[in-house]
Amino acid sequence: MRLVNFSFVLIAATLAAAQSLDPLVADPQHYKLEFENQWVKVVRETMGPHEKMPMHEHTAPGALIILMTDRNNRLTSKSGASETPRNHAGEIQWAGPSVHKSENLNDAPFEAIRIEPKQLPPGVSPKPLPPEKDDATILDPETYHVEFENEYVRAIRVNIPPNEKGKMHKHPATRAVVVYLTDQNMRQTLADGKTRENHYKAGQVRWVGPDVAHQDQNLSGMPSKLIRVELKMSR
Length: 235
What we know:
The chain is mainly beta. It contains three helices and 18 strands.
């Protein structure tokens, strides 16, 4: 009897997984979890040339998508309606909840990072970012540019030219997801004069907490580019 019950549970679990529209369950070949916490889930999406994804669902409230490669995909909904979004590597966009299957129409691989804020509990309203008088986007908007903002996130594009420095600044007292578009070789000088260095590879994703005031210096002969996505509820 125990064997029968165990087999029934195993079969039921297998069927449930097969019917799930969660991309991480329905299509683990193309969706990989980078990390997840109480505020956000970060997923890496990849497809080989001309590969297809089965029907899957992206739930509310949606996600900020950072394109790591060019995109030329066909998205087909349950009703059969389709669209073919095209984007260039480095672009970002907000995508609402949807159910669709997908096909990479390019001859090259496709990759994107999905930053999915957690749905707010009933009765909880979104919060604005904590005020920060030394906000990098105010003191140095050419280097730290707000590219997208809604009630859940603020996305900042950071672009530091070769061997250049940004200005001393702070970020609002929230946590953030950082996605590196290029290799980073950075020296940070703190307000007290101490220094620290950061070295990361293009494509890496990090979860970072509130930080002290600092000045960024690009130690490389190439531009340093990244996207910083601040989670407004992560206090």
